[in-house]
């Protein structure tokens, strides 16, 4: 046990340079951070780091969570030592911050919080060249998809959501589950018209802020639509 604590202490010491004990002088949380640089995209291009961000950001619109690596590890079901490298990468791009240092049993214990209430990727604002942006963005999206389906699988196993629409309407929270994986050959005009309506619907959904008032549920959305030129040779 002593060796394990020494290892964890050394890892955390490496994670951050020496700071004074107590609460750290931090700025107000950013309301929303637009991610448009390669370094931050790369930091987020990992399902575990996105899980860390989600855990720290839970209910942040009400009150920012301040957690140790050990607390995060317990909540995520991961080994404590596994998280240090990921925390270091998130710190490096200021997605998370050291909020407080406490002396516990002779060991300096670091507590972390997110630096923003929400974040999103905006490829249109990026200063990257197109090839670099595509590589970083694809990795980030892939990590996000994996993280989303990890949460979906956990919710299914716990009986908190259902695959069949009828089951979702007959069980709490009594909201229809909707899903589709499809590919069709359709007229260009139809694809373009659907894309515009789909885009507007997603924008409308995302425009509503988090709320804690009234009869609320936790809604989860993964939205993606793309079209390619049909390849006659492949019969697409």
TrEMBL record:
It comes from the Bacteria. Gene3D superfamilies: Winged helix-like DNA-binding domain superfamily/Winged helix DNA-binding domain. InterPro entries: ArsR-like_HTH, WH-like_DNA-bd_sf, WH_DNA-bd_sf. Coiled coil: none annotated. This is Helix-turn-helix domain-containing protein. It comes from Actinospica acidithermotolerans.
């Amino acid at each position: 046990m002593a060796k394990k604590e020494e290892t964890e202490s050394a890892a955390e010491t490496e994670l951050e340079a020496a700071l004074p004990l107590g609460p750290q002088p931090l700025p107000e949380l950013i309301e929303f951070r637009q991610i448009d640089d390669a370094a931050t995209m790369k930091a987020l291009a990992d399902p575990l780091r996105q899980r860390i961000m989600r855990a720290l950001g839970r209910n942040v619109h009400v009150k920012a969570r301040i957690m140790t690596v050990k607390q995060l590890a317990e909540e995520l079901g991961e080994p404590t030592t596994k998280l240090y490298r990921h925390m270091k990468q998130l710190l490096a791009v200021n997605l998370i911050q050291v909020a407080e240092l406490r002396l516990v049993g002779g060991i300096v214990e670091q507590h972390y919080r997110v630096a923003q209430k929400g974040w999103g990727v905006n490829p249109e604002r990026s200063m990257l060249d197109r090839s670099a942006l595509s590589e970083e963005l694809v990795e980030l999206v892939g990590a996000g998809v994996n993280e989303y389906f990890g949460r979906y699988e956990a919710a299914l196993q716990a009986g908190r959501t259902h695959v069949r629409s009828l089951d979702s309407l007959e069980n709490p929270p009594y909201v229809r589950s909707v899903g589709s994986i499809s590919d069709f050959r359709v007229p260009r005009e139809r694809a373009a018209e659907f894309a515009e309506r789909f885009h507007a619907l997603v924008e409308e959904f995302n425009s509503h802020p988090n709320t804690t008032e009234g009869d609320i549920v936790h809604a989860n959305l993964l939205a993606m639509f793309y079209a390619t030129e049909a390849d006659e040779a492949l019969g697409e």
